[in-house]
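Entry 12.
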Amino acid sequence: MTTQFQGVTVWPLIRKAVRSSQRPAHVAVAYLGQGASRLLPLPPGSRLVVDASESTVKSGQTCPSELARLQKRGVRVFSATNLHAKVFVVDSKVFVGSANVSRRSSNALVEAVVMTSDRAVVAGAKRFVADLCMIELGPERLSRLGKLYRPPKLTGNSSLRIRPNGRRARPALPQVWIAQLVAADWPEWTDEALERGHQAAKDRMNRPRRHTIDKFSWGKSPSFRPGDIVVQVVKEEDGRRMVSPPGTVLHIERWKRRRDSRVFVYLEVPVRRRVQLDRLAGRVGTVGKKRLMRGGKVSPELSERLLEAWGNGKGR
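Predicted 3D structure (tokens):
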């Protein structure tokens, strides 16, 4: 018996199992979208249960033409209106997880499944699918549903990027910024504002056990906002440029006294040592080094490399 958790290459794992299958598969999956017949090439004799209700088809979540393609290959297609499960029984294995059969699931979303060859679990999953096989969809019904189908209008985070099949999709990142700073002392009369800002930031911390509050002064209204990530690059008196771990913006405290005004930015940062810019630059490449030297808004691609350099403990 083998049981594995898979949260990286879910669809290549399922597709490989289906393609090498010697027996019909038993699948119950809520939604089956465009491209599904290639993503899940079920062998003849397989049973497939989806939510092919009119409302689901009209919203584009289930594509009748893909069901028709599978049906022509000898797959029996059924509909269960309130189905939300994702169960794939292939040979002596069963995959249970979050993945619907769609390009978005395969290429963009962060999915996970548990795969097991436990005989009792496989048998139970097969019975589960069989019990749902009550309303079979014939060619005429699929044809009528095809006239109702409309391509889906995607909602949610528009920054979610499509990646080639087989590569891990990551959760969309917050905006990352590089803050170019110079080591300096602050006037004593800012103490009250500093303390007020510190308390506000402390109240908003998410991980106080492993993180601490850091702060820096910004001479103008910042472009970054609470929830963004800021990497501080500080030029020390000896000329070295030291880079702090990426910190999440908790609070922005504005202070003004006569003609002097300042903005204090409070971050929640992991408890780790700073590193020299040249050392970190070796891990984020030439483009990353230029951005660290220049400061400003960081692209999504560079954000991943920069955060990975710290997240994997390599920035220590």
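Annotation: The chain has two domains: 3-148, 176-311. The chain is about 30% helix and 25% strand.
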